[in-house]
Design a protein that fits this description.
Helix content is about 30%, strand content about 25%. The protein has three helices and seven strands; from the N terminus they run βαβαββαβββ. It has a five-stranded parallel beta sheet, with helices on both faces. It has a two-stranded parallel sheet with strand order 1-7. It is globular and about 45 Å long.
Length: about 140
Amino acid sequence: MVKKRYITYTEFGNLMNRFVDKIKDYIQTNPVKYVYGPPRGGLPIATHISHHLNLELIVTFTMTQQSTPILLVDDVCDSGRTIRQLLELRSNCIVATLFKKPRSIIEPNIYLEEVADDTWLVFPWEKDDTPDKDYFL
């Protein structure tokens, strides 16, 4: 049975503060200039990171030179298929997600929390009846 975890805007703000700090520490030794978040779940996170870490927000994943590393952020690494598809287009990414699930085929470089496979995360900007979150661009 799926358990829903509702994330309020207050909790999201607290998560993002921790996430910014964790990313800031990581990119001190792995510098990046750009941040990208897949539309819907990753985009609000990428926008927040862009403002707080002064990184350029890119809206098209392949719009920078292939040799330039990108910070790829998303809300959750659930199955890992979305991130895997993006990494097939561009491998030099630092992957950072707020949450990851044990079943994910991708291990993010950075994540805040691991949640059980049967946990459905509902972010404050989502409707409660959000369909399957495995999407690609």
